[in-house]
């Protein structure tokens, strides 16, 4: 057995699930247990399981056969330790989370998640004094400090296959089909699958669009004899007016936060139910929250939204008179088995995580950069988001082959 400074770790998965989580759990646990003799504790349902003390040691058998399995055997949630809905109230459960980790002799909490998870883990370290480590997971690929997050490659494959399939039916019916792709407020998933699937129009949040520009492009295509079009639109895409309004809102919010800070008031936004908006991770923070009582228990959920692609398809149909259809890929993009690349990436990240834990390196994210995995201080990661630069090579290539970005 190789020497290890860490004897016991806890693993949790937090935020939206994605293919590769199980492969990463497997890699960390196998290497930590068999190579370094660490005890590995699996924590259920993200930070909620930590707060509710739902955790148990993992055995070699528990983490066998996981490489190809989608989802997460540990379960996940979007709950934050410092703002956790408990019995209808939002409570700071940081101390309870830390106490539970200590009770199980956990020396480092390994958190598999996206930007929100990194923030929560960082906060646990800063406020609770417990060591943490994160691995970048998200189909959005927007985690700062890493070139790739696991789950992204699989989602790109799924979205690309969908675009391929939409091509054949759109061609047969001479229609335009608007395909909505996830990605939260980043355009990576739409950009890469749009490029790989040869989408005619690619709309991403980073490049605000103008409806008329898309309409003109679609009509030009039609006049040139191409009677179908595929429009790949990111769920967070905005037209130019919306983008301007969003910028103004952001500035006002920042001003208000600063004003409250100066006055020493709480900077957390409250919703109509007294639940703070930020009680859930940021992927859903901007959606209306509803609180109801179900079977005598208070539950909070985000109201289901109409796919933005429906609105866009209607508008383009009105503008051009061309028949339109809508496909919203939704959670299909997060399901099923990970691609070979994601499996290999998870194994690389997981093995590096175990090595770093054995060395006693904590409070870092294990990042993938230039084909290798390396630690990046969590402080350099949190509060930042990796978005698509306007002049990214994939944007330029897309423009080069004639795709319209709506601007
Ligand atoms: O962050 C991953 C992601 O799939 C985003 O692309 C999407 O906006 C969000 O999660 C969906 O969240 P939920 O599963 O809570 O609906």
Describe this structure in words.
The chain is an alpha/beta fold and about 400 residues long. About 40% of the residues lie in helices and about 20% in strands. The protein has a seven-stranded mixed beta sheet with strand order 3-2-1-6-7-14-15, with helices on both faces. Strands 9-10-8-13 form a four-stranded parallel beta sheet, sandwiched between helices. Helix 7 (about 210-225) crosses helix 9 (about 310-320). The termini are far apart. 6-O-phosphono-beta-D-fructofuranose (F6P) binds next to loops.
Name a few traits of the molecule.
binds 6-O-phosphono-beta-D-fructofuranose, four-stranded parallel beta sheet, alpha/beta, 407 residues, seven-stranded mixed beta sheet, 11 helices, globular
Record field, number of beta strands: 15
% residues in beta strands:
15-25%
Hetero groups in this structure are: 6-O-phosphono-beta-D-fructofuranose
Largest sheet: 7 strands, mixed
Low-pLDDT parts are 269-283
What's the gyration radius in Å? 22 Å
What is the overall number of helices? 11
Order of helices and strands: EHEHEEEHEHEHEHEHEHEEHEHEEH
The N- to C-terminal Cα distance equals 58 Å
Whole-number average pLDDT?
93
Instruction: Give the structural class.
Output: alpha/beta
Strand arrangement in the largest pleated sheet = 3-2-1-6-7-14-15
What would you call the shape?
globular
> How helical, in percent, are the residues?
25-40%
List the helices and strands and how they pair.
Blueprint (H helix, E strand, L loop, with lengths): L7 E6 L7 H15 L3 E5 L3 H5 L3 E3 L26 E3 L2 E3 L2 H10 L4 E6 L1 H14 L3 E5 L15 H22 L2 E6 L6 H10 L3 E3 L7 H13 L5 E6 L5 H24 L25 E6 L2 E6 L5 H13 L3 E5 L11 H20 L4 E6 L2 E6 L15 H8 L7
Parallel strand pairs: 1-2, 1-6, 6-7, 7-14, 8-10, 8-13, 9-10
Antiparallel strand pairs: 2-3, 4-5, 11-12, 14-15
Helix pairs in contact: 1-10, 5-6, 7-9
The structure holds 6-O-phosphono-beta-D-fructofuranose.
The site of 6-O-phosphono-beta-D-fructofuranose has 12 residues, from loops.
